[in-house]
Each structure stands twice: as structure tokens, then as C-alpha cells.
Amino acid sequence: MAVTDGVRGVLRRVAPATSARLDESTFLFAGATAGLLGWGGTQLLSWVAVPDSALLATALWAVLVGGFVGLTVLHGPDAVRFSDAMLGWGLVNGTAMALTVGGLVGVVPARLAFWTAWVGAAALGYLWTGGLLVRAGAGRRGQGYLAAGAVALSVLGLGTVAFDAVVPVAFLLLAALHAVPLVLDATTELSAVTRGVVLALVVGVIVAAGTTV
Q1: How confident is residue 2, by pLDDT bands cut at 50, 70 and 90?
Q2: Long-range CB contact pairs, 152-159, < 8 A, 24+
Q3: Segment 82-87 long-range contacts (CB within 8 Å, at least 24 positions apart)
Q4: So what's the pLDDT on residue 10?
Q5: For residues 144 and 190, is the Cβ–Cβ distance under 8 A?
């Protein structure tokens, strides 16, 4: 694609040489770990209702994202660092982050800034990644990410029509959406349908637990 080729060319010129110490599976695990720590920490801050919890969560994410980006840039394989999938994730996550900053300064509604934008980013990112992999001939992996995108869209729909049902565990849902598809891709040969079912079951358990809080 001409646009992404241009961006990729710029990145190749400015990015430092990689040590290539991370293979793709390790990279996926690193992403899953960042998601679990970030969204898990955000949920904990929400539960204990400490002063300035939004700013504290943002600081936590700044550390995690900075570490993950540094790990990717310095040690990730070029096939990952400059892939169309990563460019897509950079776009959707960058947009979500901009909305989050807008929420911090009070110009974007809190639910949109701190939750809806990130569920939407997960959905779009997985659908984009899945489509790319299917077109590249990696059908099982691609369809697995498409299934994850479909589950994320379902969570987005549930939060849109019944946010009160998810608000007690809103960030745990994001942790599941962030981590489970990456771990399944890195560690299993499960079919796309099974991956989608596993993620849907995890999401369902979290929502059910939230109704009892």
C-alpha cells in the first residue's frame, strides 16, 4: 500500500538497528503483559477510588507504553517493527490516546475517553490485523484475530446499551480484550472459532462477576 510504504520508509530511515532478540511470540507475550498490568492497574485504581486516579493510571500507562515501545524499537524483528499491522495499531491506539488526553483536560466525555475509545481501538486493531493476515495466507491466525475483533465489537455494543452492567469491571474487560488474543496466538494452534469462544467466555465470566460486585 502506497501510504503505508511511505510511512514504513521513513521509519526505516529513523529507527535504530534492532538487536532482533525478540521473536514474534515473545513480542506478543510482551504486549499481553503490558495490557494486563496496565488495565489491571487501572481497574485497581478505579476500585479503590484514590484521588487523581485518572492521572495515576495515565502515568502507569506512560511507563508501560514507553517500555513496550522501547522494547519493540530496540529488540523487535523488522518484520514486526515495520509491518502494516503495527502501523494500524499505532493509528488506532494513537487516536484513542488523543481522546484520553482530551478526557483528562475535560473536553471529551469520560466514558468515551477512558473506555469506549480503547474498546473501539481493540476492535479495529484486531479486524485490521486479521484482514492483513488472511490476505497474506495466514488464514487460521487471521481468522483468530477477526474473531477477537468481533468479540470486541460485542463488548462495545454491550457498553453502549448497558454500560451500568460493565462499569464495575470495565477495565478488566479491556485487560481480557488486550491480552487473551495475543496469548492464544503466541501459544496455541486453536482454530479461529475456538479462539473466539475462549475470549467470549472470559468476557462473559468477567461481566457476570461484575454484576455481583
Answers
A1: very low
A2: 152/119, 152/122, 152/123, 152/126, 152/177, 153/123, 154/200, 154/203, 155/119, 155/203, 156/116, 156/119, 156/120, 156/123, 158/207, 159/115, 159/116, 159/119
A3: 82/8, 82/11, 82/12, 82/15, 83/132, 84/1, 84/4, 84/132, 85/128, 85/129, 85/132, 85/133, 87/4, 87/7, 87/8
A4: 66
A5: yes
Contacts of 28 (CB under 8 A, 6+ apart): 182, 183, 185, 186
CA gap 213, 210 in Å, rounded:
5
Measured at the CA of 183, the angle between CA 126 and CA 197, to 5 degrees, comes to 65
pLDDT in tens, 73-84: 888 787 887 788
Distance of alpha carbon 149 from alpha carbon 171, whole angstroms: 17
Q: Are 213 and 168 in contact (CB under 8 A)?
A: yes
Q: Averaged over 83-92, what is the pLDDT?
A: 91
- In this structure, which amino acid lies at residue 31? G
Which amino acid would we find at residue 6?
G
Type of residue numbered 126: Y
Q: What is the pTM of this model?
A: 0.91
Grid cell digits, residue 61: 500507562
Q: Distance (Å, rounded) from C-alpha 41 to C-alpha 39?
A: 5
